[in-house]
Amino acid sequence: MKTIFVSVWCVLFSGMLLNCNAVSSNTSQNTDQNSQLQREWMLTAFGSYSKSDLIAKKAAINLTEKAENGKVKGSAFMGCNSMFFTSEFKNNGKVKMSEIGSTLKACQDMKLEMDFSKAFRNITTYSVKGHSLTLTDDQGNRMEFIAADWD
C-alpha cells in the first residue's frame, strides 16, 4: 500500500513540475515578444512617401502601454491628428488592429494621415527583425518602422 501511494505521489509531483516549466517557458516567450514590440516606432517606408517626408511629419506609432490580456493600446501620429488603437500581436506573426480612432483637427495637408489610417485598418501580419518592425496587409502592402530609441 505504501509503495503504491509513493508511486502515485511521484507521478503527480512530476506532472506538476512539468506543467510549471511549460507555463514559465510561455511567459518568457511572451515577455520577450512584448519587449521587442512595446516601444516607439518611427515610420520609415510607406506607400509612395519618401523617408524624408515621413521624418518631416514625425510619423510614428507608440506601443509603450502595458499589455493587458494580450492587447496593447497604442497611438500614432502622422503630422496632424493623434490616432489611437488597440493591437493584438500573436506569436505566429499575425496582428489585429481594432478600436481605431483619432482626434478631429483640420490641417492643411492630411494626405499622409488619411492614407495611413486607411492602410492601418487592413494590417494582418507583423515581423520584428533587430530594431525594425514591418506591418503588412493581405495584399502585400507594407509599412516599415525603426525603433525610435535606436536611430
TrEMBL record:
Keywords: Signal. Residues 36-144 form the DUF306 domain. Gene3D superfamilies: 2.40.128.270. The keyword Signal applies. The keyword Metal-binding does not apply. Residues 1-22 form the signal peptide. InterPro entries: DUF306_Meta_HslJ, HslJ-like_sf, Hsp_HslJ-like. PANTHER family: HEAT SHOCK PROTEIN HSLJ. This is META domain-containing protein. It comes from Chryseobacterium salviniae.
